[in-house]
Structures are given as C-alpha cells and as structure tokens.
C-alpha cells in the first residue's frame, strides 16, 4: 500500500509541478534506470522500482492538455516513434504466447510502460536547443557519476546495490544473480587490482556490461562542449580531464563491446572535428607513457589482452550461443519460438551473452525485422532532421545524439544489454528539440 500511495503522490506532484518534477526525474533517470532490479520501496504486493516512478511522472504530465498535445505532436511527426510503438505491440502479442514465463510479465509491467514514459517526459520538457543542452549536460554528469561509482567499487569493494541487498533483502530482486556474481565488489570479495578474480573491474549495481555501455554512450556528449557552448580555454581544462577519467574507467571495465564501439564512434567524430583528433592523439600518447611507467596500468593492459582479447570479439561463449541460436532458427522456422528475448536467452539458450538482434529474430522474423528497422531509423532520422536546424551548435548536438545511439546499436551486435530505454530517451530528446523549428519551416 505504501508503494501505491507513493505513486499517487508522484502523479499529483507531476501534474501540479510538471517542470520541476519532470526535470528531476530526467536528472535521476540515466543512472537509476540501469539499477532495474533495485527496489526502492519494498512491498510484497507492489514493489516500487524506478520504472514505476518515471511512469507515474509521465502519467501526471499527460493529465495536462498542454503536455498531452506536445507528446502526441512528437509521436505524429516522428516515424521512428511510430515504428517503436509497433514494436511494442508486436512484442506484447508474441509475449502472450508464453504467459507462463515471468519475463513477459516483467516486460509488460516494468519495461514497456517506462519506455513510453521516457518518451513522454522528453517530448513534454524539451522544446528548444537550450533544453537539449541541459539534457546533454545531465548525461555528461551521469557519465562522471558512473565512473566515480565504478572507481569506488574498484578500490574499496563497495557496491551500492549489493550493500542495500545485504542490509535489507527488500531492496533487491532476490531472483537476480547480478547482485552476487558479477562486477567488482558485487560479490563482496576483497579486491586489489582485480586480476586474481578474472572479472570485470568496474560495474555499479552489479551490471558491468550495461554500466560500461552507458558510460561509453554518455561520454560521446563530452565532445559537445569541446566544440560549442564556450570558446574559452576553460572548456579544455574542464572537459578533457573528465574525458580521460571516464576513458580510464571504461578501459578498466574490460567490456569489449563498449570499448570497441566507443573507438569506432571516436574515429567518426575525429573525421568531423580536428580538435577531437588532437585530443585523441594526446590521450594515446599519455596512455603509452602510462603503460611504460605505471606498473598497475601495464598489468591491467596485459591481462586485458591475454584474457579478454585472446578469443576476439566472438569468443567461445558467443560461438556456442550462435550455434544454439542457429538450431533454434532451424527448429522454429518460419514463425519463431515466441515469447520474448528474456525467455529465449535464459530458458532456451541458458546463456547471458547473445546478440540482441539475433534474439529478436529468434522470437520471430517480423519482430526481428521491426527491431532492426527501429534501430536504423533512430540514427537516420536524426541525421536527416539536423538539416532543418540553422544553429551550428544545435546541429552538432543532434549529430552527437545520433552517434551515441549508433554506439549503443553497435554493442547490441555482440550482446543483449537492455539499452532500448536509453536509445529512445536520447533520440526523443534530440528529436523534440527540432519539432518547433520544423513547424516554423513548414
């Protein structure tokens, strides 16, 4: 009952103070949403997670005719959003074929509403270049927060989610093994430099893959102020050390998909901005010096090469997953196995490592094609829409939004990481900032 009362209070506050509550939830969303198994208010009937909170805020916003108009205007004018809604409908229909599986219930009650809620919040609150700038500053700060949490976990073996679960079991989903089996500190072990355990070095909330990918996606926006906002030297004094710090923690995460995807996006950005290329060369030289003169950095690097890169991106575990997926395609062609990707991943493959795109194709061929089209359109639509924008700074922000989404898409080629909420959120914010401009042109 406490959870339900809390939700009702949040809805009322969102309706009464839409700007303050809406932006407050946007500030918290990048970090807290990734802690999906963390229960904020323990309740046997209705445990309250962050997904329900953002859904409650969005419901409070759409109670207002003004914000309801802004949301539906964004939906009508954005083809990727229409594809996204079709994807959700198809996911629900296929999920109905496996109602006995708890994964569909989790997606229906937690994930799907929060996806739409994220769109509602950004479409209602972000209408101008300045507001998009505020949102991207939030993402930059979120990258810093994630890096700090990972650094604390690395050196002090302290994981927030694991600590809460130890102190009170009602704070976590006891079915989730991520709190106990992965991430530095999430198992409670004493950590020196992590090599003895052979696990990822950094990952708050016990989800090292997701943490590293989000860190890489948010780091893309550090390049926004390096070209815009200000022309003073203070920009470089502030943001380049931040970029180096986040890069260090991304490297220590040892999540190959995130590292490789960021390198690809960094090369693309460098081709469009000579200053970024200079920054990259400087960081490369500093890394070589660190390898030569800092023993711990050299040990981490050698361990990463010998243990994480020895099998390449497609290591033995991924190859086994591909073989199992191939057999599923043959056995279930042409209709697929049904259910959802959680069902395919944990019940049929019995694995935690498989391409998100291949998993959706395993559920059903039409669902896989729609998901593939959705990811492509999120990037393509932003690249096209930025041509309507006159401001160079605004175009640069939209361009980096598209590249951040592309980074997330690249990581999905190698594993299923649950980043769809972030892809939709970043796209929605960038697209919403262009709606008034497009309307004026028309």
UniProtKB/TrEMBL annotation:
| Transmembrane stretches, start-end | 24-46, 53-72, 78-96, 108-128, 134-156, 210-230, 236-269, 276-294, 357-384, 396-413, 419-437
Keywords (A to Z) from UniProt: Membrane, Transmembrane, Transmembrane helix
The protein's name is Uncharacterized protein
Q: State the species of origin.
A: hydrothermal vent metagenome
Lineage of source species: unclassified sequences, metagenomes, ecological metagenomes
């Amino acid at each position: 009952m406490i959870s339900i009362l809390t939700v009702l209070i949040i809805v009322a506050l969102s309706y009464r103070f839409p700007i303050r509550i809406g932006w407050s939830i946007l500030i918290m969303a990048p970090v807290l949403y990734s802690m999906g198994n963390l229960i904020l208010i323990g309740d046997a009937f209705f445990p309250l997670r962050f997904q329900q909170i953002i859904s409650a805020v969005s419901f409070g916003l759409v109670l207002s005719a003004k914000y309801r108009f802004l949301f539906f205007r964004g939906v009508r004018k954005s083809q990727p959003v229409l594809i996204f809604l079709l994807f959700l409908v198809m996911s629900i229909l296929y999920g109905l074929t496996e109602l006995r599986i708890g994964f569909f219930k989790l997606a229906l009650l937690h994930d799907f509403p929060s996806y739409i809620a994220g769109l509602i919040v950004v479409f209602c609150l972000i209408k101008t270049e300045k507001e998009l700038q505020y949102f991207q500053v939030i993402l930059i700060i979120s990258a810093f927060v994630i890096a700090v949490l990972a650094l604390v976990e690395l050196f002090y073996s302290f994981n927030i989610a694991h600590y809460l679960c130890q102190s009170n079991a009602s704070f976590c989903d006891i079915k989730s093994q991520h709190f106990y089996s992965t991430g530095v500190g999430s198992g409670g072990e004493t950590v020196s430099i992590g090599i003895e355990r052979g696990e990822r070095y950094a990952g708050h909330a016990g989800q090292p893959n997701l943490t590293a990918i989000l860190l890489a996606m948010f780091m893309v926006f550090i390049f926004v102020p390096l070209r815009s906002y200000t022309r003073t030297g203070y920009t470089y004094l502030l943001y380049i050390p931040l970029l180096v710090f986040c890069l260090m923690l991304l490297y220590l995460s040892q999540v190959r998909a995130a590292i490789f995807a960021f390198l690809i996006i960094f090369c693309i950005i460098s081709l469009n901005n000579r200053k970024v290329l200079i920054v990259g060369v400087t960081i490369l030289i500093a890394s070589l010096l660190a390898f030569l003169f800092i023993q711990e950095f050299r040990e981490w690097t050698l361990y990463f090469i010998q243990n994480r890169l020895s099998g390449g991106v497609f290591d033995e575990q991924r190859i086994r997953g591909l073989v199992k997926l191939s057999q599923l395609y043959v056995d279930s062609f042409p209709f697929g196995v049904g259910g959802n990707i959680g069902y395919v991943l944990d019940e049929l493959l019995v694995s935690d490592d498989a391409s998100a795109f291949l998993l959706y194709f395993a559920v059903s061929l039409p669902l896989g094609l729609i998901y593939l089209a959705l990811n492509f359109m999120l990037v393509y639509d932003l690249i096209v829409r930025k041509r309507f924008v006159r401001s160079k700074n605004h175009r640069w922000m939209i361009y980096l939004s598209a590249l951040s989404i592309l980074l997330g898409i690249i990581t999905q080629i190698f594993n299923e990481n649950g980043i769809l909420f972030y892809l939709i959120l970043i796209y929605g914010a960038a697209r919403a900032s262009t709606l008034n401009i497009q309307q004026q042109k028309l």
